[in-house]
Amino acid sequence: MIEVSGYGGQIQFDGQYLTITRKGFLARATIGKGEKRLHISQVTAIQWKPAGPFVNGFIQFTLPGGKERRSAFGGQTTSAAHDENSVVFTKKQQPEFEKLRAALDQAISVQHSPRTPSAAAPASLADELTKLAALRSQGVLSQAEFEQQKARLLGQ
């Protein structure tokens, strides 16, 4: 479980779900108190602005069907502070948010990668015996090794 606290919001990530929590006066004044829970499959992109010496940074999550708007020059962080899918952080908080970002990038990559069958269909007993016979005839297995593997397959 990764938990980070930013300026006006907290994020928890358990490997499957991302939870953005808002508490306190700042949350009430900008977005409103509450909690937003997203499955990692819902997150299609992460926007990242690192904090600088004089400005805060932010992490923002893009969701399918979400309406993203372009911020005016110099107003990105201010816009992010009013977005329910963003959390603003300070320069001091940034290393923890970088760890969160790396974990989220990994989880998104796994979630959106093509699925491969977890295991090939088990071969039939006849197929296994045929393979063993072929290995014996090629000289890979001795007659004794063949008999031993055959007995194992037949449960003897």
Radius of gyration: 27 Å
| CATH architecture heading of the largest domain | Roll
> What's the mean pLDDT score?
81
* Strand ordering within the main sheet: 1-2-3-4
Shape category: rod-shaped
Which secondary structure elements does this structure contain, and how are they paired or packed?
Elements: E1 2-5, E2 10-13, E3 17-22, H1 24-30, E4 34-39, E5 45-49, E6 57-62, H2 76-81, E7 86-89, H3 94-112, H4 125-137, H5 143-154
Antiparallel strand pairs: 1-2, 2-3, 3-4, 5-6, 6-7
Helix pairs in contact: 4-5
Detailed description of the structure:
It is a single chain. This protein is an alpha+beta fold and 156 residues long. It folds into two domains: 2-112, Roll (PH-domain like); 125-154. The protein is built from five helices and seven strands, in the order E-E-E-H-E-E-E-H-E-H-H-H. It has helices at 24-30, 76-81, 94-112, 125-137, 143-154, and strands at 2-5, 10-13, 17-22, 34-39, 45-49, 57-62, 86-89. The longest helix is centred in the middle third of the chain and has 19 residues, at 94-112. The two termini are 49 Å apart.
